[in-house]
């Protein structure tokens, strides 16, 4: 069998399993097995694929057809131009979260470009936000918090792999409870799936990604409320808070933020799809 035949088999299997993006995912899994980028994969479509590699590819297809996320199968995900290791210890980074990172970067570059900037990433998970901010803001010192020691181990490894371990420290704790000095930027992507939405999530989410990182209570805002209650005492004057929110949460979160920060400028920033996604509070 040739590489192209294996690829066609993978596309058919994933399509028959009613998986979205079946063609791209079949390519990604085969690239992983062969150690090739996309250009290399298509260059080698006419080359034979050995029995061992074919068997390995088919095992990955079995896992994907059982609704295990591709990112967990291949063990990494691209985020904000960085390659991050991902495991079931943490949520898989999503493209919409890049809007939060960009909002924070724009704020620091426009407002605090010439001095050291202190940032807290609350609920860091894989470290996607903290590491992206450190990688793009050389004047930033980032503290990344999480309840999960496994997630912190994962994030610590990603910081080392991306060359920012000297400017990111990791703290195991609940939200901002262990942050005792005011900081310039608070960034957070906290759980915002409602309890009822959790019950209806696709299997690849519900059965694989950590519930702790997804489910946010009856209206999805339990942790957001707690963060906004803690944040005024931890945000330095002239600082900013950036919080990712779920679809339909914008108006409620704006009201909550206005109550917590009555003198701040508060707005919502959209993600790439134009959906209001990032609560921005400028103190």
What does this structure look like?
There is one protein chain. By secondary structure, the chain is of the alpha/beta class. The protein has two domains: 3-66; 87-282, Vaccinia Virus protein VP39 (Rossmann fold). Helix content is 43%, strand content 19%. The chain is built from twelve helices and nine strands. It has helices at 3-16, 22-34, 38-43, 51-65, 70-74, 98-111, 128-136, 149-161, 195-199, 203-206, 222-234, 250-260; strands at 76-79, 82-85, 117-122, 140-146, 168-172, 183-188, 235-244, 265-270, 276-282. The chain has a seven-stranded mixed beta sheet with strand order 5-4-3-6-7-9-8, sandwiched between helices. A two-stranded antiparallel sheet has the order 1-2. Strand 3, helix 7 and strand 4 (140-146) form a beta-alpha-beta unit. Helix 2 (22-34) packs antiparallel against helix 4 (51-65). The longest helix has 15 residues, at 51-65.
| N→C terminal distance | 62 Å
Shape: elongated
At CATH level 3, the topology of the largest domain is Rossmann fold
| CATH architecture heading of the largest domain | 3-Layer(aba) Sandwich
Q: What share of the residues lie within helices?
A: 40-55%
> Which value, in Å, is the CA radius of gyration?
21 Å
Most strands sheet:
7 strands, mixed
Task: Please give a quick description of this structure.
The protein has twelve helices and nine strands. It has 283 residues and is of the alpha/beta class.
């Amino acid at each position: 069998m040739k590489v192209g035949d294996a690829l066609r088999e993978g596309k058919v299997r994933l399509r028959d399993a009613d998986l979205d993006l079946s063609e791209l995912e079949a390519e990604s899994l085969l690239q992983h097995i062969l150690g090739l980028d996309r250009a290399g994969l298509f260059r080698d479509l006419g080359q034979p694929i050995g029995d061992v590699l074919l068997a390995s590819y088919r095992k990955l297809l079995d896992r994907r057809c059982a609704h295990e996320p591709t990112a967990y199968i291949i063990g990494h995900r691209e985020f904000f131009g960085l390659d991050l290791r991902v495991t079931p210890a943490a949520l898989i980074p999503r493209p919409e979260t890049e809007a939060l990172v960009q909002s924070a970067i724009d704020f620091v570059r426009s407002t605090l470009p010439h001095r050291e900037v202190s940032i807290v990433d609350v609920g860091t998970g894989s470290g996607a936000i903290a590491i992206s901010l450190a990688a793009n803001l050389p004047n930033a010192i980032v503290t990344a918090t999480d309840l999960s020691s496994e997630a912190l181990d994962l994030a610590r490894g990603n910081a080392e792999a991306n060359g920012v371990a000297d400017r990111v420290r990791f703290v195991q704790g609940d939200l901002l409870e262990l942050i005792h000095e005011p900081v310039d930027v608070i960034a957070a992507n906290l759980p915002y799936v409602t309890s009822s939405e959790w019950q209806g999530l696709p299997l690849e989410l519900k059965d694989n990604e950590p519930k702790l990182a997804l489910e946010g209570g009856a209206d999805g805002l339990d942790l957001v409320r707690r963060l906004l209650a803690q944040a005024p005492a931890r945000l330095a004057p002239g600082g900013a808070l950036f919080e990712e929110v779920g679809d339909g949460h914008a108006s409620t979160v704006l009201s909550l933020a206005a109550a917590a920060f009555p003198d701040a400028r508060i707005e919502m920033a959209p993600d790439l799809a134009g959906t209001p996604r990032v609560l921005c509070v400028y103190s």
